């Protein structure tokens, strides 16, 4: 161990290695949790070569490693366990190249998402993955977690935009897929395993993304509707009318509006009559492509599908309408002890699923206030459930919600990732064959389980001897 | 072996098993090659359960299996080697469900692509992957090969549209990912390894795809330009003006136009002056979104970027313009012995790369006529090179082209797949770490190498002992 730290000191220098306890503590946390364990050290390589050599030193010494980007994760996936080092990408930062003809951008993994977005926009292009933490979240972190956000409806998850990766594998070998090819069927796609792997298979050092034409014109409306069923009808109607001009379709349940507008008075209540609210956004490259939006909303109201609506007439008004949706951050801060679920089901099942969760939680004594808000067009809801802060309450509430989730064939995490906080609930959405396949996937790339070993899976806690050799289901 | 065939006969019945030599021969070919070896038998399961049990029987008997869809492949990837059985999905056919609210479609793997497209369109939706072989190619086959086609520029490869798969693994276990979740970050994405795996990791039995809103309105122009550089400028201008209304941007080199219009007189020459030709298509949900197309083309001509142009004024005229591009099939049939390369490089490098290939091939005695046509917006060119039919010529020409390809960091196959015909050229675009990773990927899922064992990789021909334990590059 001491020999490894000595070798790392020589390799990385004073700027590249943090061992002072006072400086280590912020590397023990993400945006959801302050971990109980300090890392042994924080490695801050500046080049791929340094990263590769640092990983090789740790691998040879058997030291667990936790890759870390902007620490904006919400599942504890970048929080180091006891005895691990953190490998931070914070010094591997900066846009390396923007190719306007091929519409690609290459950046160091530690580059903040917002810097990537701005570099694209400076060329009249766009990198359309967008999340609230864009100023701190790194492009490498968003790839490692397959980040979602509010524009998934239109542009898909991060996976869709990744054109190339450079990865330091858990033994220090460098896997480079940075050719920038839009089409490449020369064998298995070696980028895919690492996208959404939460740092458990390797350390991403460089990223190449496909950019798209910027869509600077937008139209935004906040709608009041009877319930989720009406909102779903509205979604289908919007898609039918505007196709993929539709860029966001965010749902706010009455309990959310009540919390934001009444309980904490964070934003004035937009409508006199409480109901279900939807933020509907269109985006286009030309203003004319948004024509007919107001008329169409008028038709929906005449047809009785929408009860009330506010259309933004300026960018300021757009920001004010978005503030209602973005107040979820403030709710999160003010609610006190609570679980923040990140669930997805099939798009058409979301209303019934939420209803079933509400019903179930009413029978759970530990469950306090329930608040629901989400990406309705993607079948993704964030359910916040207040409790008394005890572990027993957390377990009781989680068990109830995941029990309903299993009935609806949903996922325990739509976009936040498994990390450490959802690891033990994975089987609520993965059957035994899938669990075996997940473990096997981990073992290919990280046979010694040194890379972020407590996230997604804990190989040491499971019997993995009979992986592929399962009898077929019907046997 | 006999015991296995007996067990398969009992399991699948007379309709489910072909062993008559006269009936076997068509299962020994794909669209590119008639294999020299007849399969031992063709298994035609009708359900996932039958497929699972059939695979388990073969696995236990150590019989290699080759999954087969519509046999429209162009790389020999579905052609069985000696001693293997074919597992055909031809009886697992039909659309199972279309969900218009979630915009998803579920089908048996053996369903023809065109049937999937038509089922989507019947609901005002679209499945946007489109290839010439749509009537025979199966949805399972397009997933297994990550099919591309003419609309990749707008909609991406097949990978982007796959929402779920059901797969029989090489030991008969069934891996099911059919929850239909748009967002699911609950561990590694277990669909990804199978997309583009060409039947080497398992047998796809069911597919769920994400549909998109139909875009029934189109505008199409055939343009004559100086060269590829002018075409690339035109691509950038089209993207800048129309964003993702741009749905196709197909390039035809002068040698292609000469072959089609002069050598074989398949289509009348569209322009008096020979040059580089581009088919530029826009698609939209409303006719008004295509406004300004003619004016914009006029501006390009005034600016000297485009030399001449023909805009289609009806669907009939659109078909006539497309005929020029689609004549590649007839060229393929009439050219005599030739190699059909399926290459990709970064989008902005394609012109220089083709130029370098031309230059190189002029020095190769074995190389006859060279014809270039491709998906310019994706950096993908199909280069046809005539030769005298000898193996030596094939090797000499291939070596020359792939040598140039390596300099340009391209891929030996953009969309047709590796199969058997490009397997031995993989290292032209994959470095040693990648080759190790590819082999490891195969070994996880198919440790006995029973599933399509001669495609993509031949594990038995390679030393795979030191997979992940590579020293890092700089060592």
UniProtKB/TrEMBL annotation, chains A, B:
Any one GO molecular function term: FAD binding
Entry keyword set: FAD, Flavoprotein, Oxidoreductase
Domain FAD-binding PCMH-type: residue ranges: 35-214
Pfam families attached to this UniProt entry: FAD-oxidase_C, FAD_binding_4
InterPro entries in UniProt: FAD-bd_oxidored_4_C, FAD-bd_PCMH, FAD-bd_PCMH-like_sf, FAD-bd_PCMH_sub2, FAD-linked_Oxase-like_C, FAD-oxidored/transferase_4, Oxid_FAD_bind_N, Vanillyl_alc_oxidase_C-sub2
The keyword Transmembrane helix is annotated on this UniProt entry: no
Top-level taxon: Bacteria
GO biological process, one term: respiratory electron transport chain
Cofactor(s) essential for the protein: FAD
UniProt keyword Oxidoreductase, yes or no: yes
Annotated family: Belongs to the FAD-binding oxidoreductase/transferase type 4 family.
Protein name: FAD/FMN-containing dehydrogenase
Provenance organism: Paracoccus laeviglucosivorans
């Amino acid at each position: 161990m001491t020999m490894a730290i000595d070798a790392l000191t020589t390799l990385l220098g004073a700027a590249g290695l943090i061992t002072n306890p006072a400086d280590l503590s912020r590397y023990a946390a993400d945006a959801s949790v302050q971990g109980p364990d300090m890392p042994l050290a924080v490695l801050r390589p500046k080049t791929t070569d340094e990263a590769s050599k640092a990983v090789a030193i740790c691998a040879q010494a058997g030291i667990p490693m936790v890759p870390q980007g902007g620490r904006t994760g919400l599942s504890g996936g970048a929080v180091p366990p006891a005895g691990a080092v953190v490998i931070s990408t914070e010094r591997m930062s900066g846009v390396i190249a923007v190719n306007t003809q091929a519409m690609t951008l290459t950046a160091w993994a530690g580059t903040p998402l917002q810097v990537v977005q701005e570099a694209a926009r400076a060329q009249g292009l766009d990198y359309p993955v967008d999340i609230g933490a864009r100023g701190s979240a790194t492009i490498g972190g968003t790839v490692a977690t397959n980040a979602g956000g509010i524009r998934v409806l239109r542009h898909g998850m991060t996976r869709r935009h990744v054109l190339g990766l450079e990865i330091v594998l858990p033994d220090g070998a460098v896997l480079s897929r940075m050719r920038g090819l839009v089409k490449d069927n020369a064998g298995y796609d070696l980028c895919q395993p690492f996208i959404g792997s939460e740092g458990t298979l390797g350390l991403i050092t460089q990223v190449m993304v496909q950019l798209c034409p910027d869509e600077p014109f937008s139209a935004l409306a906040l709608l009041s509707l009877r319930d989720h069923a009406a909102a779903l009808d509205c979604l289908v109607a919007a898609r039918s009318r505007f196709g993929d001009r539709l860029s966001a379709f965010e749902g706010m349940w009455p309990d959310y509006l009540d919390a934001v507008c009444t309980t904490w008075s964070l934003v004035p209540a937009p409508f006199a009559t409480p109901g279900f609210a939807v933020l509907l956004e269109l985006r286009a490259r030309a203003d004319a492509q948004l024509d007919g939006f107001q008329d169409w909303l008028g038709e929906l109201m005449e047809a009785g599908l929408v009860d009330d609506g506010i259309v933004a007439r300026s960018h300021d008004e757009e920001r004010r309408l978005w503030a209602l949706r973005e107040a979820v951050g403030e709710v999160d801060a003010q609610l006190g002890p609570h679980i923040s679920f990140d669930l997805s089901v099939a798009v058409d099942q979301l209303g019934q699923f939420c209803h079933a969760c509400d019903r179930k939680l009413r029978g759970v004594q530990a469950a306090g206030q329930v608040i629901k808000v989400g990406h309705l067009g993607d079948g993704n809801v964030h359910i916040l459930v207040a409790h008394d802060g005890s572990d027993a309450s957390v377990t009781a509430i989680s068990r109830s919600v995941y029990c309903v989730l299993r009935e609806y064939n949903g996922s325990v995490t739509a976009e936040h990732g498994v990390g450490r906080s959802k690891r033990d609930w994975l089987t609520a959405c993965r059957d035994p064959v899938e669990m075996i396949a997940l473990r096997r996937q981990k073992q290919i790339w990280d046979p010694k389980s040194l890379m972020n070993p407590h996230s997604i899976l804990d190989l040491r806690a499971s019997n993995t001897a009979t992986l592929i050799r399962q009898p077929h289901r019907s046997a």
